[in-house]
């Protein structure tokens, strides 16, 4: 596997890993909301959103790698 193929593989891995993190942030945001901690819930929701935005950038990288 050359470096370009390796990078493309890593980008796919990172994207999938970020998806898992975003789901986790969403789950914890929901839990914190149910405990009445709306501020922390909102922060976790932002983390999930920003992680998904990062994946959009990773997708661009995958297309040109």
Q: What do these coordinates show?
A:
By secondary structure, the chain is mostly helical. The chain has one domain (3-64). The protein has helices at residues 3-34, 38-64. Helix 1 packs antiparallel against helix 2 (38-64). The radius of gyration is 15 Å and the shape is elongated. The two termini are 14 Å apart. The model has no long low-confidence stretch (mean pLDDT 97).
Question: Would you summarize the structure shown here?
Answer:
This protein is mainly α and 65 residues long. Helix content is 91%, strand content 0%. α1 runs antiparallel to α2.
What is the topology?
Layout: H1 3-34, H2 38-64
Features of the shown structure:
elongated, mainly alpha
Largest sheet: none
Mean of all residue-level pLDDT scores:
97
Element-by-element helix/strand order: HH
Q: Structural class from helices and strands? A: mainly alpha
Shape type: elongated
Strand percentage lies at under 5%
Uncertain segments are none
